[in-house]
UniProtKB/TrEMBL annotation:
Ranges of residues in domain HTH lysR-type: 1-58
InterPro entries in alphabetical order: HTH-type_LysR_regulators (IPR050950), LysR_HTH_N (IPR000847), LysR_subst-bd (IPR005119), WH-like_DNA-bd_sf (IPR036388), WH_DNA-bd_sf (IPR036390)
Cellular component annotations (GO), alphabetically ordered: cytosol
Assigned protein family: Belongs to the LysR transcriptional regulatory family.
Keyword annotations: DNA-binding, Transcription, Transcription regulation
Protein name according to UniProt: Transcriptional regulator
Gene3D superfamilies linked to this entry: 3.40.190.290, Winged helix-like DNA-binding domain superfamily/Winged helix DNA-binding domain (1.10.10.10)
Signal sequence annotation: none
GO molecular function ontology, one term from the record: DNA-binding transcription factor activity
Pfam family, one: HTH_1
Amino acid sequence: MDFKQLRYFHEIARLGSFTRAAETLYVAQPAVSVAIRKLEAELELTLFHRHDRKVTLTDEGARLLPHAQRILQAVSDAQLEMQELKGLTQGKVRVGIPGMLGSYYFPPILMAFRHRHPNLSLQVVEGGTWQLQQMLESGELDLAVIVRDFVPPELEARTFQREEMRVVVAQDHRFAQQACISLSDFFSEELVMFRPGYFHRKIIDRLAEEAGVTPNIGFETNLLPLIKSIIKQGFGISTLLSMVVKEDADLIDLPFAQPVWLDLCIAWRREGYLSRANRAFVDFLLEQNPA
């Protein structure tokens, strides 16, 4: 079993195709097929079910896949660290950010970081908490913003900001003049929610479970402008970070009777190598909101 075989195996498993894997790897398709046949012969196991148009893992292949992922990631980390020891002056930061924060909190942070480190490139991916966590664990991202409550033991994390989730209603809504909103009142209304997988939705699902109710979700969308428009027109209410509505005069934001606070973290793989570029980004982010 060698590195090339594992790399080919991983790409076939990821893409479900020998042909597409060969295209991604920039090698001839027969070379990929030969490498996998040799790997299967060496292991005395069949790793793939070969169908007419799709390739799927056998049970044995599924057991090998996480080992291959860890080995490939370890080699990538080693290559990166060795490059930096040679005095690498440029680098890339691949960071995942939830949409709500990507639209309102991070734009000035990202621009200021680029101003301080003009030789570093930034690749920003927007997604839900679960998607970003999976991409981080698989090595597709170097860093990701995750709510402290949802950080798994496989990740290292540092808190950089505390934000309050607020109930958001239209100016003429019956809640608009109240000082705060109870969970029972909130869940009595038709709600406009992010889709499952986003921290916004995970928080609401958890609150509903604690209150013993089923949320009445009338709209599901990850588009913030649409959420705000639906609320303004009186077709539902929602809960958003205060930063999202603080400059919108047509919306009223109110605290829950028992305030809901979120500790926002920058996270990375606990066992992974954090490059100098990524360490610079983490340090810069923590500088913006010192404890």
